[in-house]
């Protein structure tokens, strides 16, 4: 066993850390200011393009893509500590073209896309010229059980016809978002896990209507935006089908592994940032005759934050290691575990930081409140905690011989 | 011991409950829609005035004022269950002219105001014609220890001159807000708890500048608004001083008791509403072959919600009972206890409700996310949990003979 | 609403409190010493009989029995604060003839016993001359679901024949224990909740064999003892049947209400004692330059203990009030709630006290460790927490119209 | 980074695992039975010597000793997974001569002992012929702050004279225990961390009196025993001093690192065993129409157990890795973290297992209750959680530039 990062990783860590300190953190405020108050979903902050250009120039670009000629050839365990560093700022991942949901979508295209798909969609995504969304969750069913999904993708001649309403299609609020991966049923009579397909739908196709964007607590997340989209008799060429009819679940599984672990890495970064904000603040503020840093309860929060962050990072790295060595499928329990652990740890750290900062902590004057709201969604996205815990438990129970046949 | 509400209270409960069902809940959406997207702090939703007129006509008005000819003559324990009912909607309290911070400010004026103060400010507040704010917290010091407050209120001839920066002056974003109660130091050399005074400052006085409003987890709370206010050589007549120089702490103590318990009552109402939303939803949604209501983990959340809500309500009622019978000062430990307990209980219930609803729960489509953010501030407002727990502990330790002299 | 105890209760509180201070606490050590090291289940500490005589002489006897000529005529809400005081010592309840399981068994005999039962068993129990046990739980089935119970009680002429193995028949280790109330199936074909009966079995009946006693975290609880009992073709007169065949559930329900709430009251007493031990100790001990009482984390424990004890006491009193006013059945949800809440609160308080005392806290030098172990069993006895939470949740869900039919 | 165990470790894991299955688990009951009921501290179960002989014969002996010719030459990270396997049984560690406090004491002798010390005490300890104790904690002071320790070790000619009372000298109840390492003050005027020394005291020296043994919850832990020892003018040769006067702290630091991490490894083993007991049981038991394994709440417990055990194991391994690579001192924060994390994780898992098993779980019929009680002491031994959390927090705060000078 060896807990050291490789020299290559250490070099990249230093580079990204410098870049964050020099360019990203100082421009968070600029980014917020550049989002127009009135047309929040039609303006794109120019600072983002400037930062992207800088990152690209320094070779800090598309680092998320493992084993690909298009990426940096980093394994999951190599990418993890880098992704964590980016995750310390809400604008960090996009700067390095490593932001969700594009990363997941690009991976789908790399793995399952045809040459045509790659030329048309993957290339501009890799260049940071367009953005994409993932259109799976539906308002009318409990999407945590993906077999519930009801939108339809029906073959009609050389085309597929898509109907249904999706929401939480994150990123679709942005005018730069050009393409959606849509999940839906093509055969309700097939075996349960073979009913769903995934298909590429350009957002300018007739019948695609972005009805509104959803808020996360009070944040609209402009210009990104979590869209509710109506697909009304939307017709796309049959060649837009990914991998083949009925293979939606298969793609979802492949997509979600890396996607989930990237979220966890960023989440740990956000927790580290909250802890650093807390630690700096409590050494400045004085109440009842001593600094907050000298108060026992604050010290307990700090210790618990450090213990929990360390543990969740190690678990994330182990999951990444397993994805690299035995594959995403064999690592599914480890992925489920970090999917549950990381957001809960981070939410607790951020909540304590908010509490230590007082009213300032809930306001726009620090990244804490926005970070909390953002990470709170991760306890729901890609399945709520409870669904993952159920899966972990069932996996554990299987180890014992006397498994009752009826265990669900 | 008798755990029954009086007949009078039961009648009022029924009346308010009906009013909420008939007029308030159905108009929450209208209220939100009437807040202009572009001039959020200059428009006042007309629906609110309609609802206020209705409530006033039914005699459901100013119920919060205990022992006053201006109010309904309800004791704290009588008002508690009514306040809880109003608290189930974020727009509820204002409808009945029972909204913070006006209620606290009106109480200050009733108790400590001169006839002139009452005529000029209390009367229009009681009529719901104007609104008010409480300007105590400062951005530059840990206001949880109120001796830290640094704004100055200095006598100069027949006037007082006020200087300083305040924030979280809630309600000051609203153009209908006309008067502030400002706390500041008039004598830095006086005994520690005699340095601070409170004074009335009309918001249109020269030198009063509302710099901006603060967000709460992305919510701007328009048109109410949590304002940062600069007081720059603001001059008011000496007669605007409340109670006398150096008596700010005394007023704060008197004001905070009822203010805190009202918040707790409303908070319990919000928790009840979240639980009802959860219970309705989980009986509709199906995942993995059964309704969410049949899942053991969901049932555990419901049971814990019910157990914790019941207990926090009983503790709130006991605190109210003590305020009524032995006075706010003697009830201070009980008030501190519910101040800590109620928001924490409600936050947990709401968080579980959000989790049960999935992504919908964090959005604008239910009151849950906004309610959570709102109540999260109550763990900080009027002193963070930790300050109150410290006070409770010190009170407990005093019961034992061997109290070490150095206990802080 | 009125949160005051009646004058009668206050007088009894003072009397019992004095008695505890003067006689019970100072003799806890004597009691432990009088339990022989070698024949732990055959010696009965003489100090107990001396204390019982004193309590009886002062009229502090059988206070648990509500509405009975044999008891003190106290309602549940009147008895609650008295029971709490007794519960502060592990030997307290027996001193006042208010110890489990005798209290529950006496109530069963008062309610459902024939004149003969009363003369033969109730009278000596009321006099504190004999003790009794309740033989329900079985080692081979999940007794939390009482329909699982498998022992048989079969009519054979003028007798019933009892077969089965019971355990956790608490008190049966004591040679003074003369009578058991045994639950078992008399008709496996009856409707599910009509299969079980309860019958009186004198422990000296042939075929009754006490196989061993069970430990609770290392404690053997001698001379009381939690017995495993084999009933092997045990024959008792048919007149020993309580209430009639198939009415075991009915009796269990009636018995468990008061029994559960008494446990809760005592548990709150135990929590109060732990808190007092903690508070005294932390003012004496010094670490890192200040007393433990000055450490913020310790203060947080104290505050949480006070807040949680207050709330659990209020909930217990409300449940008692409901039992008095609307009956045990209508109070079932409230009883279930305190059944869950009180032990969990007390365990946390005691655990914190242990932590504050250091290694002394886990030893025989304070009542803390024994109290913790004892109360830990209450999260299991009469149904585990989870079963009660499930019941509370189902009751809550019933309030909503759209109750899915399949909710279990 | 590499999360794989080496082949050497995997081979030893398999060997120890087989040994545990074949010899240790099946003999736990025999061991308990062989402890006499009446002379619990004078009988030594013969089965233990049989098992030791077997383990020694298989080369599974003294594996704990890192980098030593006397041990197996295993690094901390190599020993960790082996120690975990042994820790699954309370009698496991002694079987392999890897039990506390002997392991810590042997390490002290290896590092700091003279040739004479080694010949006389280390050799028979390494052979498993005698046992030893560590006499540091005192009843009269808060020993969590070791500067409080008051026993005296005063030079008098060629001897040292030891006076003081110690308790929790674990192992001293056993007649095989021959030697104590005693900590005490030799110079109260020296610099604070130079006042304490450690010295070897044979237990048969005149003036050494074992007053009694202490219980842990109700367990006496015979024949081991946690002794209270009076040292009354005990005289030992000056050559018994370890390392030199005033170097007690230095030795304590050196001793505690490995000692703490070994406890953590065993604790994780105990948690794994509890989880396996839980998983087996819940698949057998049926309540309310389905197995407990199908109940959502039970599944949540299992998932949380798995997530927490995985994380605490990784943190333990990382601490071991750091001890191996940068040394015990540089690893002190990591050691403090696992010292806090591992027992808390295990206690939660065991508590859930107890809850799932019902009353059986608190009894002598499973290892759960004894394991819980044992591990509960680890939240206190070698410093309570709170002291370690304080240290972790202070270490964290040091990372920030603006460290207030007064931070304690």
Automatic annotation (TrEMBL), chains A, B, C, D:
Write out the entry's keywords from A to Z. FAD, Flavoprotein, Oxidoreductase
Q: Where is the Acyl-CoA dehydrogenase/oxidase C-terminal domain?
A: 246-395
By its UniProt entry, which InterPro entries does this protein fall under?
Acyl-CoA_dehydrogenase (IPR050741), Acyl-CoA_Oxase/DH_mid-dom (IPR006091), Acyl-CoA_Oxase/DH_mid-dom_sf (IPR046373), AcylCo_DH-like_C (IPR036250), AcylCo_DH/oxidase_C (IPR009075), AcylCoA_DH/ox_N (IPR013786), AcylCoA_DH/ox_N_sf (IPR037069), AcylCoA_DH/oxidase_NM_dom_sf (IPR009100)
Domain annotation Acyl-CoA dehydrogenase/oxidase N-terminal: ranges: 8-129
Q: Which GO terms describe its biological process?
A: fatty acid beta-oxidation using acyl-CoA dehydrogenase
- Family the entry assigns: Belongs to the acyl-CoA dehydrogenase family.
Gene3D superfamilies xrefs:
Acyl-CoA dehydrogenase/oxidase, N-terminal domain, Butyryl-CoA Dehydrogenase, subunit A, domain 2, Butyryl-CoA Dehydrogenase, subunit A, domain 3
* Record-given protein name: Acyl-CoA dehydrogenase
Q: Which Pfam families match?
A: Acyl-CoA_dh_1, Acyl-CoA_dh_M, Acyl-CoA_dh_N
**Acyl-CoA oxidase/dehydrogenase middle domain segment(s):** 133-229
Q: What species is given as this protein's source?
A: Cytobacillus kochii
> Subunit notes for this chain?
Homodimer.
Glycoprotein is among the record's keywords: no
User: Per UniProt, what is one GO molecular function of this protein?
Assistant: flavin adenine dinucleotide binding
This protein's cofactor list reads: FAD
Q: Tell me a GO cellular component.
A: cytoplasm
């Amino acid at each position: 066993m060896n807990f050291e990062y490789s020299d290559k990783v250490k070099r990249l860590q230093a580079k990204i850390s410098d870049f964050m300190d020099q360019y990203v953190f100082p421009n968070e405020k600029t980014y917020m200011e550049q989002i127009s108050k009135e047309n929040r979903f039609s303006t794109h902050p120019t600072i983002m393009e400037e930062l992207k250009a800088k990152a690209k120039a320094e070779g800090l670009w598309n680092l998320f893509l493992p084993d690909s000629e298009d990426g940096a050839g980093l394994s999951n365990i190599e990418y993890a500590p880098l992704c964590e560093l980016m995750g310390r700022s809400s604008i960090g991942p996009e700067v390095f073209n490593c932001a969700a949901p594009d990363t997941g979508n690009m991976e789908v295209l790399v793995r399952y896309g045809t040459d045509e798909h790659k030329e048309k969609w993957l290339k501009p995504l890799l260049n940071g010229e367009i953005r994409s969304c993932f259109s799976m969750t539906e308002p009318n069913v409990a999407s945590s059980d993906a077999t519930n999904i009801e939108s339809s993708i029906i073959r009609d001649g050389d085309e597929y016809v898509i109907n249904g309403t999706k929401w939480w299609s994150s990123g679709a609020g942005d005018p730069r978002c050009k393409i959606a991966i849509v999940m839906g049923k093509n055969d309700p009579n097939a075996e349960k896990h073979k009913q769903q397909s995934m298909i590429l739908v350009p957002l300018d196709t007739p019948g695609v209507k972005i009805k509104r964007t959803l808020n996360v607590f009070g944040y609209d997340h402009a210009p990104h935006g979590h869209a509710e989209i109506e697909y009304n008799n939307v017709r796309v060429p049959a060649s837009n089908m990914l991998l083949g009819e009925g293979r939606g679940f298969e793609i979802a599984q492949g997509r979600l592994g890396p996607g989930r672990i990237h979220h966890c890495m960023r989440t740990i970064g956000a927790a580290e940032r909250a802890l650093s904000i807390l630690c700096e603040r409590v050494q400045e503020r004085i109440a009842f005759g001593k600094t907050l840093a000298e108060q026992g309860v604050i010290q307990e929060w700090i210790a618990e934050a450090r213990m929990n962050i360390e543990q969740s990072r190690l678990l994330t790295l182990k999951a990444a290691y397993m994805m690299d060595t035995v594959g995403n499928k064999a690592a599914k329990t480890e992925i489920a575990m970090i999917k549950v652990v990381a957001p809960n740890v981070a939410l607790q750290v951020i909540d304590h930081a908010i509490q230590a900062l007082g009213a300032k902590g809930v306001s726009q004057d620090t990244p804490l409140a926005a970070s909390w709201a953002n990470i709170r969604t991760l306890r729901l996205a890609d399945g709520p905690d409870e669904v993952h815990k159920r899966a972990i438990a069932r996996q554990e129970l299987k180890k014992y011989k006397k498994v009752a046949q009826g265990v669900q």
